[in-house]
From TrEMBL:
SUPFAM superfamilies xrefs: RuvA domain 2-like
Domain of life: Bacteria
InterPro entries from the UniProt entry: RuvA_2-like (IPR010994)
Name this polypeptide is given: Helix-hairpin-helix domain-containing protein
Amino acid sequence: MKWPFAIWLTLQGIAVSAQERQTAPVNEQQLESQAERQEGLTEDDTHWQQLEYWQKHPLNLNEATENDLKGLRLLNDLQISNFLLYRKMLGPLLDVNELQAVPAWDIPVIKQLLPFVTVSNPKNIVERLGERFGHGEQTMLWRFARRVNNSSEYSKTTNAYLGNAAAILFRYKYNFKGLLQYGITGDKDAGEQFFKGAQKNGFDFYSFHFFARKLGIIQSLAIGDFTVGFGQGLIQWQGMAFKKSANALFIKRQGPALQPYNSAGEYNFHRGVGITLQKKRIQCTIFGSFRKLNTNLVIDSLLNGQEYISSIITSGYNRTLAELNDRNNVQCVTAGGALKLANNRSHLGINAVQYSFSKPLQPAGAAYDLFAINGQRWSNYSFDYGYTFRNMHVYGEVAVDKLFNRAMVHGLLASLDPKVDLAIVYRNISSQYQSLFSNAFTENSLPVNENGCYAGLSIRPVPRWKLDVYADIFSFPWLKHQVNAPSGGHEYLVQIDFTPNKYVEIYTRFRHETKWQNMADTSRAIQPLAPVTRLNWRTHISYRLNRVVELRSRVETVWYASNKQQNETGFMFYTDVHVKPAFKPFFFNARIQYIETDGYNSRIYAWENTVLYNFSIPALFNKALRYVINVNYRLMPRQVKQHSKKFNCLFSLSFAQTVYPSKPAVEAMEDAIEAYNKADFKLQIIFTKR
């Protein structure tokens, strides 16, 4: 009965053909939103590596599990649940165009998914086991990056570093369809020594991982470095996770509990052993980790000279003697687990994490740090749930810490109509609740000291038009950094997308945010609070001239006002050109950009492509011109031409520079922060063998 239906869908020609599939989405708007909130951007590029791998080895939808689909990070739980139910009721898909019949799946979602999925008959598990160690893809990456800055202040800073200004990354990885993966990563940051001094073994940071999936009852086995994600991130979430963005429905933390880690970030991961076991509907995850952390240690003269941790250092920099003295000076032992009962429509789970430090943690003494973690041991526990009923999915997590301070997040995803989707998130997190390695859907960077309610709506009124809106109202019951009293705020966003044809995509958005901060008033001992408002208006256009050339342009303005007075405004414009000839070994892109703002408060963020698996989102402010050039060349040597499908080498070169047309402006900025008057150079070589 499915064959006539599948043929009819194919003849409609709605879905994009394989030749028109677009490149991997990079979640640019989500990352730009995180940069605007100064939350710090993760160095974990695992998701980008996985998307690139799926482009070359598409995920078979007829054998994809719930965790496989969640790992794509392109579908929400309602869409995943509906797909699994559709496949269970009607059997394996006959064609990718059949996805149009799955409830809550629309054409834009399917187009975004097509580059990474396929439909074929599942292979026998015995055949795959025999292939794991011999038929995988091997990748070796070398990246060299260096910043050039002619300012006198930057020269003084770099001269204080023990190593040279080059940053070097090495990575080897073996991957067989995500079922078996292992590799090693070495990373040297700019200013760190290399094969000398404190780094006689070469790189400052080494990482090794071995990760296997679907070995009978063993769903995941992690040895070495890995990340852990439980529930909605209230007690543990180390993988990539986005917060508020124009994608109003992507609000839920989702993915397998264990994931391999092979990135350059030196903090947000565990090192040890983890395993996930599954028998029918019961799933159990346990892990143990032993790591050394970089911390600031303080000697307490009142306690016989006992040392305690005043703060944990997360940057991973070891460039100076002071930074080297703080390197690996505290041992951290972590253990945890999760027990989940699940089926296709619902799950219930309990989670626990415990930490033990070789030295005690003690708050620094600031008023806003009154409830920070204290002592050598800490623990967190939670209960999480999820349930799908027809066109509605509810989920949440309730957590407590060692002192039984509570936190909770509850959410709803609903398809109100084939053209209307709704998302709601409520969070209530005590000002005293504390956790480590956590990342929930909150306004704050960590789940602490926050109450709030978020509501998002995605509407597709007519073909080719889409409206995304959200509103978030939040409050902070206790003090925060640079906020000397309980405070709050609100944020609204409206974005309209228009796709008149397959060559043009346009979106325009308006974002409004108001928060309370300390008012700069030096005449008062205690600074009063004042509202700070930031307004952004952006219009972005992508135009594909043909299958080779694509143009992208953006205009953005920003208004910043403090204490009900308009203090600063900003403007930014850029144009990109992307050239990727078919059946040619080279492709490149370039950008020219103009920025003019009244100061740092009116700064603007914009995603920049660099080399593969890498990106940049610099803060742009003052008056300047900026250009970015990226060139890529894929080499397939003639002597191995007959094996070109098994071996290739990709050379990538990236160069970006900011030019200040006004000489007085350059002189005024010369003694400011090192972000001024800089040029960034990156060279990367990737060898791949299949």
